[in-house]
Structure formats: C-alpha cells, structure tokens
Design a protein that fits this description.
Elements (H helix, E strand, L loop, with lengths): L1 H25 L4 E2 H8 L3 H14 L2 E3 L5 E4 L1 H13 L1 H17 L2 E8 L2 E8 L14 E3 L4 H7 L4 H7 L15 H14 L2 E4 L6 E8 L7 E8 L5 H23 L2
Antiparallel strand pairs: 1-3, 2-3, 4-5, 4-9, 5-6, 7-8, 8-9
Helix pairs in contact: 5-9
C-alpha cells in the first residue's frame, strides 16, 4: 500500500511540475509566489519547495530579490533540442529557403498542438515592412492560415470535438463562431489552401497550406504579407509557390 501511495505521489509531483512549467511558458516575465499560487492552485508550502527545486535545476529562475520567478534557460535548451532533432524540420529547410527566395516574404512552418499551432521554423522577409514571429510561438489554430489549413484535413465532426462553440477573437476579423469556421474549412478543402484575412494581426494577410505526409495533417507552411504590399499578382505568385512547396515537402517527408 505504501509503495502504491509513493507511486501515486511521484506521478502527482510530475504532473504538478509540468503544469508549473507550462504556466511559466505561457506567462512571460517574473511572478511572485502569491501570483503563481493563484494561477496553479497548489498549497503554498509544496509550491515553494517545488519552485526551489526547479530553480536549483535551472528550469526556473528568480530575480535579484529571490522572491519572483520566471522560466529558466534549461527550458530553452530542451525546446531547441526538440526542433534540432525533428526530422520534418530538417527535411523542410531547403524548401523553406526556396520559398523565402521565391516570395521575398516571411515564411513559417508550424505544427498543430491541441487547438493551437506552434511555430517550428521561420524565414524572415527582407522588406522593411514585415511581420515578426519567433520559433516556439503558440497561436490559436482557428485564427491562423496555418491552423485552418491543418484543421481542414479533419472532418467537421472532429473539428467540433476539438474546438469550443465560441472561439476567442484576436482581432475584429477573427472567426468567433465554430460553425462559420467549419463553413470556411469546407472552402479550404476545395481550393487547397487557407487564408488569414487579418484574423490574427491587423494589417497582415497570411496564406497557408497543409503538408499531407500524414492524415489528418499536423504540419503546415505559410507565407505572411502586409496588406499594404499585397497585389493580385503577388498573391497569385504566393499561392503558386505554396503549392510547389507543399509538393516538395511531401516528397522530402516521404523519405523519413
């Protein structure tokens, strides 16, 4: 019985550790013990001991006073190793470079994680007016061309299971009704690509296409363009380049 209780205690501790790290990952900056406790709901004494252990191991850092906590450098090392060791990211690099050269715009490779997309690789535009997205950023799938392109590879019923009926708005253009989003997903399936019409960032239009090396897809590539610089001819060129990139990425990932 004691062994079972010990095993249960170890699992609970592991879950709390992961939840705590996810809190810090999603809440940049430094936080007081009281603020962390309010967010995670753990008893203050056990939370303090867990924080001190994670500080000693480098997963959590403190400020000069030792009373405020934030994510530590070891989390960055683990995140970087995930990207460095991912075969799809490695296989996609030549295609992302080519897509960047062909379009002269910002290129992203992202992966679906729950109801969000996480950016795995980017190629920044050389234009003065350009979007900036860092590797590791997480955004709601329903507000991005990347996420919508991936969601379109799921059935309508799967999407209904995945997403709440009311969706979080990031701008005034974001879909907030799941059924309206599902209607757009049907159009995406027909045309083969998704468009983010300032749904994530005002003034920015993004075109995304899923990489169907598995079904449903989990990865997609996109091209982001400031609306002020987008012309019909440039838009068509981007779409053509994305279809070409999809075919190249599909060929590259088939070798894995």
């Amino acid at each position: 019985m004691a062994a079972a209780e010990g095993a249960g205690s170890q699992v609970k501790s592991a879950v709390r550790t992961v939840e705590l790290l996810e809190f810090f990952a999603g809440s940049p900056g430094m936080h007081s013990l009281a603020a962390v406790q309010e967010a995670v709901g753990y008893p203050k004494s056990s939370l303090y001991m867990l924080l001190r252990t994670l500080v000693e191991l480098g997963w959590i850092e403190t400020d000069a006073t030792g009373t405020r906590y934030g994510i530590g450098v070891r989390a960055l090392l683990v995140g970087t190793s995930y990207i460095d060791g991912d075969e799809v990211v490695a296989a996609a690099r030549p295609t992302l470079d080519r897509l960047s050269d062909d379009t002269s715009e910002t290129i992203h490779l992202a992966r679906l994680d729950g109801t969000s997309v996480v950016y795995l690789a980017t190629r920044q535009s050389q234009h003065y007016l350009r979007p900036f997205t860092r590797v590791g950023r997480r955004l709601p799938a329903h507000s991005t061309s990347l996420g919508k392109a991936i969601l379109a590879t799921y059935s309508d019923e799967q999407v209904r299971t995945m997403l709440p009926q009311t969706l979080e708005p990031l701008t005034e253009h974001t879909h907030t009704d799941r059924e309206k989003l599902i209607e757009e997903l049907d159009r995406i399936r027909e045309q083969g690509y998704a468009v983010d019409r300032e749904e994530n960032t005002v003034g920015l239009r993004c075109f995304g296409i899923a990489i169907p090396y598995r079904t449903p897809a989990r990865d997609a590539v996109s091209c982001s363009v400031p609306v002020a610089r987008l012309t019909p001819g440039h838009e068509q060129m981007i779409k053509d380049a994305l279809f070409d990139a999809r075919d190249r990425l599909l060929l590259a990932t088939r070798r894995l």
